[in-house]
Amino acid sequence: MYILLADKCALSLGTKRRSSSLGDPFDEDNELEVSSSVMTDTDDGRLMAAMELMAPDGRSSIHVELALLEEDARVIQHNVRAWLLRRSYRHMRDTTRKLKEATQTIAKQSLEKAAVTVQAATRSMMVRRSFLQQRNTAIKVQAAARGIICRKKFAQMKTEALASLVIQRNATGKKQPSTN
Fold first, then answer.
1. What are the UniProt keywords, alphabetically (predicted)?
2. pLDDT tens, 93-104?
3. Model-wide pTM > 0.70
4. What is the rounded distance in angstroms from the CA atom of residue 76 to the CA atom of residue 123?
């Protein structure tokens, strides 16, 4: 486990660069001195050991922490991209499902419309056929009735014509000779 930069800074707050009280210039080779009010010499050794443990491969702890942060950023980016892809996939899947349902609905409506058209044409044809059959039957019944009526009228006219001939013959005085 690595000690984070914030923890390291908190530990090093009690340290200061050694400088002489007489105003000697800063010397980079000087070791860190622990303020007597905050840390002892033993604590200073422990701090130095802890700082060395933070970067065992010779890199500075800032580079190690930066590498950890970059790895964490890559993991976050990977997870965000995966989430975006899943969301996009779900959206495409839902859209595909809706398109499929719409296509099926349109096909079903088209089939139902065709069925209704066929049924209407069939009903129309059956009604027309029934109407024509009834009309033909009515025509045949009417023709038969007219024939009967005409024959009766003809028979009556014939009877009346014969009766009128008989009346006319009797009226003209023609008598039929008797054979006596």
1. Calmodulin-binding, Cytoplasm, Repeat
2. 999 999 999 999
3. no
4. 69
